[in-house]
Design brief:
By secondary structure, this protein is α/β, with parallel strands linked by helices. It has eleven helices and 17 strands. The strands form three sheets. A 13-stranded mixed beta sheet has the order 1-2-3-5-7-8-9-11-13-14-15-16-17. A two-stranded parallel ribbon has the order 4-6. The chain has a two-stranded parallel sheet with strand order 10-12. The radius of gyration is 25 Å and the shape is elongated. The termini are far apart. About 30% of the residues are buried.
C-alpha cells in the first residue's frame, strides 16, 4: 500500500456529526487542542509509537490507530485534514524495528513515510529500538527497510535515541551521517565516528567501555564532539574520565552513573576541564577512594560550581569525598547528595565537615548546612 492508498483508507472512516460544536472551532484552536492532548498523553521523554509492540518476526506489524495522532485521522475528514497539516503532532516518533527475515508488507514502510510526510520540515525527535528476538539474525533486511526511510530524513534529526545497536552497524557503515540539526544523541561510543553533527550539544553514551578500547574510537576531539556541552556516561573508567578534556573540550556538565573496575596506572598529566557541574557515584566501599583520588588528581576543575554525588550522606562517603577534594585542590561551591535519606534524617554533624572544602551542602537541592551564614538547617 502506497501513500495514496493510506490516504484513501483514512478518507473512508465514519464521519462524526457535522453539527458538533468542536467542528466550529477555528482551525488554529483545534490544532492547539490536538497538541495539548498529545503532550498530556506523552511527556517529553516519551515518544509516540507508530507500530504496536505486540507482534512476532513471522507476522504482520500492526499500526497503532487507537492513540493520537493517528487516532485524530480516523474521526472525520476535518480532523484528518487538521491533524495532517500540524507538523508538530508528527515530529516525535518511536520506531520499533521488528527484526527477522520475512519481508515486510508494503503497509509499514508506507505508513512510516506518511507519518514523516505529515511532519513537514519540522525537526524530528526519534527513538529507534530493536525488538529482541529468540533467534536474531546478524542483519535484518526488514530493519534495513525501515532504517533507510529514517535515514532519508537525517537532515531533520534533532534528538535521536538509539536504544539497541542491532543492524545499525551495517546501516551506518554505508557513509557518514550528516546531521546538521542534531542537538541530542544517545548511542554507543563507537557510533560517534559515524556522525557529522557539528551542532551536537548533549550526548548520552550507553553500554560498558573501558579506557583501553576508547583510543581506537576517539583519541581527540572531532567536529561532532567539540561543541558538546552536556555528557552522560553510563559505565566507564577513571582513565576515560581523565581523558574527557581532550575529547570534549567545551563540556559544562558531566554525569557518570558507575565507575568500572579496571587496572589503572598513575595519572601523569593533569588536564584542565572547565565544567560547572559534575555527577559521580560514591559507594561506601573502600575501592572508591583510589578512584576518586585519581579523578581529582587527574582533572583540574577551576570552574566547578556543583559536585553532585550519587550517594547517601554517610560518614564514610563524606570522608572519601572530602579527602579526594583536598588531594586534588578542588573546591566546588556546593556538594549535593542525591540520596533517598530525607532531610530530617541527615546527620548534620557528619556533613558539616564538608564546609572545610565547600560553601554549601544540600540533599536533593535542600540546604543542610552553609558556610556563608555559618548556620545549619535543623532537621525537623
Amino acid at each position: 500500500m502506497d501513500l495514496q492508498g493510506i490516504n484513501s483508507m483514512f478518507s473512508t472512516i465514519n464521519v462524526i456529526n457535522p453539527e458538533s460544536h468542536i467542528n466550529h472551532l477555528p482551525v488554529e484552536l483545534l490544532q492547539q487542542i490536538f497538541l495539548l492532548v498529545v503532550h498530556d498523553l506523552n511527556p517529553p521523554d516519551y515518544h509516540l509509537s507508530i507500530f504496536s509492540l505486540e507482534y512476532s518476526a513471522v507476522c504482520a506489524i500492526p499500526a497503532i490507530f487507537t492513540a493520537p495522532p493517528l487516532l485524530f485521522t480516523r474521526v472525520c475528514r476535518l480532523w484528518r485534514v487538521v491533524a495532517c497539516s500540524t507538523p508538530r503532532l508528527w515530529s516525535r516518533i518511536q520506531v520499533m524495528l521488528p527484526g527477522g527475515t520475512k519481508p515486510l508488507s508494503p503497509f509499514p514502510p508506507s505508513l512510516l513515510q506518511f507519518w514523516l510526510a505529515c511532519s513537514g520540515d519540522h525537526p524530528l525527535t526519534l527513538r529507534i529500538d530493536s525488538r529482541p528476538l529468540s533467534q536474531p539474525s546478524p542483519y535484518s533486511e526488514v530493519n534495513s527497510q525501515l532504517l533507510e526511510i529514517l535515514l532519508s530524513e537525517k537532515g531533520r534529526w534533532e534528538t535521536v535515541n538509539f536504544v539497541s545497536h542491532e543492524d545499525y552497524e551495517r546501516a551506518f557503515n554505508l557513509d557518514i551521517l550528516d546531521t546538521p540539526q542534531l542537538r541530542t544523541l544517545k548511542c554507543r561510543i563507537s557510533d560517534l565516528k559515524r556522525f557529522n553533527a557539528p551542532n551536537l550539544s548533549c550526548l548520552h553514551l550507553w553500554g560498558i567501555f573501558y579506557a583501553s578500547r576508547v583510543p581506537m574510537i576517539l583519541s581527540e576531539h572531532t567536529p561532532t564532539t567539540i561543541n558538546i556541552r552536556h555528557l552522560y556516561i553510563a559505565y566507564t573508567s577513571v582513565h576515560f574520565i581523565c581523558s574527557i578534556p581532550v575529547i570534549f573540550p567545551r563540556l559544562k556538565t558531566f554525569v557518570v552513573h558507575q565507575i568500572l573496575h579496571e587496572a589503572e596506572s598513575d595519572i601523569v598529566t593533569r588536564s584542565r576541564l572547565d565544567i560547572e557541574s559534575m555527577t559521580l557515584p560514591v559507594s561506601p566501599h573502600i575501592d572508591i577512594w583510589p578512584k576518586l583520588n585519581a579523578i581529582f588528581k587527574g582533572l583540574h576543575l577551576p570552574m566547578l560550581q556543583k559536585l553532585i554525588l550519587l550517594s547517601e550522606p554517610r560518614k564514610i562517603q563524606v570522608a572519601y569525598v572530602k579527602a579526594a577534594l583536598v588531594v586534588g585542590s578542588c573546591f566546588p561551591r556546593v556538594i549535593d547528595f542525591q540520596a533517598a535519606t530525607p532531610l530530617s534524617e541527615v546527620d548534620v554533624d557528619i556533613v558539616e565537615s564538608l564546609l572545610e572544602v565547600v560553601e554549601e551542602v544540600t540533599v536533593r537541592g535542600e540546604v543542610v548546612c552553609c558556610r556563608a551564614s555559618c548556620t545549619t538547617k535543623t532537621p525537623l
